[in-house]
């Protein structure tokens, strides 16, 4: 490694100062948004947080075990439908449904991973693609219509503060009573934030643990990992299940936030899976920060370009570039970005940042065995 | 992509699909009659829906002047009653990207914006101007709240023409709590008639349930002795609402359903195996609920099956989402003789070429460089026209133009859009008639002349007066 | 019995479309060992080009040739500029690039062609519907034991056979084809013996995309329309077909497509209660899964599909 002009010792004062500064800024932002930002920004954040949680869950699987999934929309859907069914059909409080969704998705995910133990690479992608395709069909299956509402979907699956809805209580706090007549967006925002924090901590916990190191070992060399005593089958099934379970949580939020679930909604279909995947890869596969960066960028770009089918809305500089398009160019831009990144930075924006940063700052890791350490901020783990 | 893109709204695509309907008097909502907004008034304590809400009803009973919204339940009642001056801002969320759905709905946006421009140029609102912003929600219900919030921040006074049932459902809580009118939802789900719970939300399409009833009635007329029917429908919310409504009615009209086949909205392949199954049961009638390009595939397959099974010549009913001469033209001879329904004039029909309204519409679209989409943009045009008419009525009300007066105007409204068929009158009347369009004309398509012929009279019975 | 035969014919005619698309997948896989997720969308782009040629008044025969030419150029250019450079990095990168291409092409189609008079339909100002390469009037069919076979289906079926025959000749009797085989089985040695590997890979992709274009046009013709969602589901079935037949076997792809078409139709027709139209895509899933678990190389493939 080239020597960089600056050196930071991991665990040293400078390192902690930087981390605390980042944490303070993020926490400040997280608090400022729901209290002072416009409704539009809060909603954009909820959308970004939803994608973030999905991409993080996917990242756990793909970024750390090298297993490709284009079927995570199914787990998102399991979350949405668990909440939808329990709230709309059985009158549960939406909050109680998160745990159920988590367990259901975990079990389904672990079961799905059984074939994954034997299939690798693009073939696993095919299998998961099929899973993503079949999920909405199962929801629409006439035999399950009594439960899922069939192709119609289910209505009134959120906290709807009307007189004919049952009263929901969370540990004695009645959100309806408190929030009635109030703007519920910050409420949804906080649910999204809590989900993201949980997913982040779960991923971080796994990645920094012994299990996490075996994950990376599996990704990099399965045979060697097996030889060194990593329990392949167990670890893979566990990770797949966990990834599925985490991905179901933003699904629950979707049911609560939009108040309805339908099998054809984008995030429950393969289109959703592909979006999760793109967000994750653009941000940076195999890094905890990747999905965060990717989802924020994705929401920013799609919202920025959302009205660009109207030529006047395109900034003058970019008009020659996009003026000919009949549709907003967000999808196209992200697709191009995705391809370009594969050339210049296979580990996404975060990977690229780390590489650039490494030229300026060297982070000296703590000696091995001293407990919690930050991920080596220098080079990303190359596959 | 596309898949989700189930396009239930394709419905809107077909020009014919706009306004129709059935008021059907919506029995559930009639009992409370007034001040629906009580919804919000009965606090958290209320599991006892029956008492809490209803009692407040008495306070505002504007029997005389018709339905009026109760703004006390709003987050900010003053804002809902604040006069709107200078420019009325209309917001909307439509799929502009996102594959199939986006492409299919693009003309709705074109027509909508064209009419807004037309209204300003012709000074339809006097010294007020009207503007429209249309955000992209990619037909993804998870993006609709964001698209709508952005516009609320930008000071939009009302929403109109949001496409998609889940998409409208995703924002109706917010809009009803904020007390911003959510007019003319471009979906025919019967859910837009819940005056009590969602006083600020109205739809514009003929409820699919009404359309089903119209076809069943027509069938009963064709087959007084009863008939066997095969149902073919697109397997999404749109198709299922139609199919369920039809199945419920079947017995009343002496119709026996002998087969039910579905197709996925995302499945581009023609429904060969479905039609084979249907043909094997040789029903008297095929009632079809396909969408967009699926209409073409269905018709060609059915025509082939008819040719292959000599002696089997079922009457074909197809929903008005397919009732566009462009779609039926693509199906060719296969479309000959089918029954459908509509309540807008077919702007492409030569017979209507001299119709002043059609002429004006086509001329204006041409002046905007939109003649390519003129045939499919009529739905968007009409949606905007109805919206502007509602605003106009609100301006003329004693309260002047406010968000509350807009929804009050919308719910006490009677209007005939310029492109509507002769005799169509769209009405909304508080809780008694929460659906705008409930009038339909049964039509039969003639391949030779590529036109629709009226069958029987305009059906107005569902539109309560 | 007639119904059974009818379902069989329906299945075969649907299956031959899958076969057609699967052939393209197989050619790329043979050459490079990659599954091209953008295969369907590349075909769709070319189909739109054919539609556009039709709008300009060109006869369908000429349009198809232009479309296939565009397909060849698109495929070859993709291989040279996008796939080759990242293929050195990892298979994952190739997968992501094809995925990006998938998204990009679909967006591009919409951006260019979404202002058709009847959007998402292929109905243009000069064309009432997407032209079919084969007779497709309702009474263009022949009767076999009481069941009908459409002339169009026969046409597609023959087209698949002819293509398969040509590919067979290509792979076994031409210098180019033999070179392709050599590159497929061992790129390093192929290079050593003087085969221009790069050239061969480029041609493989071009050929695959050209066949894809033909498949797209045929499928659009069957549907009388072209739309943004045209190729997606077909692509899934074609992948299932290629998996079943063996990813590196053209014959396997053809047979795989037919088998999947028939199974799917039978399942939807005879197991209406449990499978029906709603779950027939599940049949493709089960096929993929079972094949990958039991015989990852498929019915006719050579065993080199990855598995642990």
Short description:
Chain B has 16 helices and 14 strands.
Coarse morphology of chain A: globular
Contiguous runs where pLDDT drops below 50 for at least 5 residues of chain A: 369-383
* Average pLDDT level of chain C: 87
N-to-C order of helices and strands of chain C: HHHHEEHHHHHHH
Choose one word for the global shape of chain C.
globular
User: N-to-C terminal Cα separation of chain A, in Å?
Assistant: 18 Å
Strand tally of chain C: 2
How do the helices and strands follow one another from N- to C-terminus of chain A?
EHHHHHHEHHHHHEHHHHHE
| Number of H- or I-type helical stretches of chain A | 16
Using only C-alpha atoms, the radius of gyration of chain A works out to 22 Å
Question: On the 0-100 scale, what is the average pLDDT of chain A?
Answer: 83
* Biggest chain pair interface: A-B, 64 and 72 residues
- Low-confidence parts of chain C lasting 5 or more residues at pLDDT below 50? none
Largest sheet of chain A: 2 strands, parallel
Q: Percent range for helical residues of chain C? A: over 70%
Query: Main sheet of chain C: which strands, in order across?
Result: 1-2
Radius of gyration of chain C: 19 Å
Strand portion of chain A, in percent? under 5%
How would you classify the quaternary structure?
Answer: heterotrimer
List the helices and strands and how they pair.
The complex is a heterotrimer of chains A (383), B (465) and C (308).
Chain A: E1 6-9, H1 13-36, H2 39-65, H3 72-88, H4 94-116, H5 121-140, H6 145-148, E2 154-155, H7 175-179, H8 185-208, H9 210-220, H10 222-227, H11 232-258, E3 260-261, H12 270-283, H13 290-305, H14 319-322, H15 330-344, H16 348-360, E4 361-364
Parallel strand pairs in A: 1-4
Antiparallel strand pairs in A: 2-3
Chain B: H1 10-13, H2 27-30, H3 38-41, H4 49-57, H5 77-81, E1 87-94, H6 100-121, E2 129-136, H7 144-153, E3 158-160, H8 165-178, E4 182-185, E5 201-203, H9 208-222, E6 227-234, H10 237-250, E7 255-263, H11 272-281, E8 285-289, H12 293-308, E9 315-318, H13 325-331, E10 339-342, H14 356-367, H15 374-396, H16 403-411, E11 412-415, E12 426-429, E13 440-446, E14 451-459
Helix pairs in contact in B: 6-15, 9-10, 11-12, 12-13, 15-16
Chain C: H1 2-32, H2 39-55, H3 60-87, H4 91-113, E1 141-144, E2 147-150, H5 151-173, H6 175-185, H7 187-192, H8 197-223, H9 230-245, H10 250-270, H11 280-294
Antiparallel strand pairs in C: 1-2
Helix pairs in contact in C: 1-5, 1-6, 1-8, 1-9, 1-10, 2-3, 2-4, 2-8, 2-9, 3-4, 3-8, 5-6, 6-8, 9-10, 9-11, 10-11
